[in-house]
Design a protein that fits this description.
- The protein has 16 helices and twelve strands.
- The chain is α/β, with parallel strands linked by helices and 365 residues long.
- The protein has three domains: 64 residues; 187 residues, Rossmann fold, CATH 3.40.50.450; 59 residues, Winged helix-like DNA-binding domain superfamily/Winged helix DNA-binding domain (Arc Repressor Mutant, subunit A, Orthogonal Bundle).
- Helix 5 packs parallel to helix 6, helix 8 packs across helix 9 and helix 14 packs across helix 16.
- The longest helix has 16 residues.
- It starts with a helix and ends with a strand.
Length: 365
């Protein structure tokens, strides 16, 4: 595993090779660790890899600080998953700029991302916001919703804790190396999340808290979630950045109506003015997401009736807030027309999908 991790970090350490470009490269040249150190690199055949990038790759023996990184991976028993691995959250593959790889602790389950909701908000919430976040998140957790947040002070921590206290899984997306706990006061919370969910990071182990990391990680919070709920936040808060990502990802945005005289309420009230769904009770979220309490209770049992390809297509459908064109599904799934047609028919017969006019398909939740 260390050879695989080293290869991916080495590739993405090269200036100009973004996650998107790295994914494109490895799609064309699988088994990265088998050729990454070759001086006669096959990358020279790619027009989108410059000579400067190629020279940098050939001159680099190991990624910067590789010994330290490898030590942290072994010390903290960090898990690693790439865009091409089955364990990679499929919902994340549907955003425009998915990370090429993730480090994580805890465990990831395929079902986590069929009922996932991002809950974000200010680090200094009002007592009203805390009360409503606890109450509504608790109700959603009891309906098996998986809560995704950033483990920051304030609303993030309230949402994670409410999920855990009510028997739900929860996922924290870090803005630092995965082995770190930031803020340090949330060490106990992080341990609880690992036992009933996962800590996830797109950053190399050893990466410290950096102000620029957190807006970037917010796209992952949205990317892992079927929808985003902003409980309370200012106009320039990270919560609003997450909401904008959710809008870009074509996923519903919710906001808690709040005191118009509070600065930390301006963002959530602004979102409602701009078209976000107001949240007065948990059913407001469930209804917009097309989820009823009756079918939530046995959702995990229903998923067991699907094979791997059927689950894959169903997850793609769930990740979209609107009906999906058959041709679009072909592009995302990379299946043949005959294969996809058979899967869609099976999902229809099993009650997981329906067709709409115009050769469009939507998920039954």
């Amino acid at each position: 595993m260390l050879n695989k991790i080293r290869a991916w970090i080495k590739l993405t350490s090269i200036n100009g090779i973004s996650s998107t470009r790295a994914i494109k490269i490895v799609k064309a040249l699988p088994e990265l660790q088998n050729w990454i150190d070759d001086h006669d690199s096959p990358l020279s055949e790619f027009s989108f890899v410059s000579k400067q990038m190629l020279d940098s790759l050939q001159q680099m023996a190991d990624p910067p600080q590789w010994s330290k990184i490898a030590g942290l991976i072994e010390q903290y028993e960090l898990k690693f998953v790439t865009f091409f691995d089955d364990e990679y959250p499929f919902i994340l593959k549907t955003i425009p700029d998915p990370p090429a790889w993730l480090f994580y602790q805890g465990n990831l389950q395929e079902s986590d991302f069929t009922r996932s909701l991002a809950i974000v908000g200010t680090r200094k919430p009002s007592s009203y916001a805390i009360t409503q976040c606890k109450k509504i998140t608790g109700e959603l957790a009891r309906q098996q919703m998986v809560i995704v947040s950033g483990m920051a002070y304030g609303i993030d921590a309230v949402a994670h804790r409410a999920a855990l206290d009510n028997g739900s899984r929860t996922i924290a997306v870090m803005g630092t190396g995965i082995e770190q706990v930031y803020p340090p006061e949330h060490r106990e919370l992080a341990e609880d999340i690992k036992r009933k969910g996962a800590l996830i990071s797109q950053y190399i182990p050893g990466s410290i808290a950096n102000i620029w990391n957190f807006p970037n990680r917010n796209r992952i919070i949205s990317g892992l979630s079927q929808a985003t709920w902003v409980v309370e936040g200012g106009l320039k808060s990270g919560s609003l950045i997450t909401a904008r990502y959710a809008q870009d990802h074509n996923r519903p945005v919710f906001a808690l109506p709040a005191d118009i005289t509070r600065e930390t309420s301006e963002g959530s009230n602004h979102l409602i003015r701009e078209g976000a769904f107001p949240v007065l009770e948990s059913s407001d979220i469930l209804q917009v997401m097309g989820i009823s309490k009756s079918n939530l209770a046995d959702s995990s049992l229903k998923m067991d009736s699907l094979n791997d390809l059927e689950k894959k297509i169903y997850q793609i459908l769930l990740s979209q807030s609107e009906e999906v064109q058959f041709d679009q599904l072909l592009v995302i799934s990379k299946l043949k027309i005959s294969e996809l047609s058979t899967i869609i028919l099976s999902l229809e017969l099993k009650g997981f999908a329906e067709k709409a006019p115009g050769n469009r398909i939507f998920a039954i939740k």
